[in-house]
Amino acid sequence: MTIAHHTRTSRQGRTTAAAAVLLAASATVAGMITAPAPAHAADQYIALALGYVNENPPVTMAGGSAISSAQDQAAQGALTNCSGNGGSHCVAEVIATNACAAAASNDYGEMTGASDPSLATAQSKAKSQLQNQQGAKVIVSGCANGSTPPPNDPPPPPAPKQGPTVSFDPVLGGLVAHITDRSGVSSQCTYATDNYSRGFALPANSKYDLRIVPAVPRFRNWTVTITCDNGTSTTATTYF
User: Fold this and answer.
1) pLDDT averaged per 10 residues in sequence order, the chain, 240 residues
2) Phi/psi of residue 125, each to 5°?
3) What is the pLDDT, as a whole number, of residue 57?
4) Which domains does the chain have, with CATH numbers?
């Protein structure tokens, strides 16, 4: 009797252990079914386009941008936005996926685009890729997550106008001053030195030969000042 009872107890223990294993396996399977892996978020694309407002140097550019979960739609939206901002012959310059992008240009109409997780880095990359840095600036930039970019680089201040150049040649009975405009703006100028002053018109980017005849050589240095009403002036010295 004692032996039989022991046998029943052993069988019951095995049955209980098997049930526990089955239960644990069922719980694992149930957990796998009810806790699916998180879905991957859809990609976001940002496209930037550039187009010409004015094609003569210094070139003026317009930009456009668009964000979409479809790459083609982002590109088309950027082109439409560029045209709406006054650009002609707009082209999609850069398309970034889940990142930031920037498109830059210069005074000669060269266009570049770059992308990076950082907006500031994307802007810096786009500008640095320009072969000529004259008038280099970011035209449009942004990020695929829709964050608002800071304002585009302000236009550089206009370069100060240069005064005219002057060179001298002696001629029979006097002196001739060869005066050439470098400002690109037509002006009325005055040539002045000791006890002598004379006005003349100086067309933009042109040369004017001012003849000072008769003039008696004094065989000394003369300081000459040429002052123009476009805000430029030049001082030179000649021996006569």
Assistant:
1) 42 49 46 50 91 90 94 94 93 94 94 94 94 93 76 64 94 94 94 93 95 91 95 94
2) -60, -45
3) 86
4) 45-143 (no CATH), 165-239 (2.60.40.3110)
The CA distance from 129 to 117, in Å, is: 18
Contact yes or no for 140/103 (Cβ under 8 A): yes
pLDDT of residue 177: 95
Q: How many helices (H) and strands (E) does the chain have?
A: 3, 13
Question: Which helix (H) or strand (E) element contains residue 41?
Answer: none
Within the chain, strands assigned E span: 45-54, 60-68, 88-97, 100-105, 111-116, 137-143, 165-171, 174-180, 187-193, 196-202, 207-212, 221-228, 233-239
Contacts by 98-101 with C-beta closer than 8 Å and gap 24+? 98/43, 98/44, 98/144, 98/145, 99/46, 99/143, 99/144, 100/46, 100/141, 100/142, 100/143, 100/144, 100/147, 100/149, 101/46, 101/47, 101/48, 101/141, 101/142, 101/143, 101/144
Residue 143 and residue 47: Cα distance in Å, rounded? 9
Contact yes or no for 144/97 (Cβ under 8 A): yes
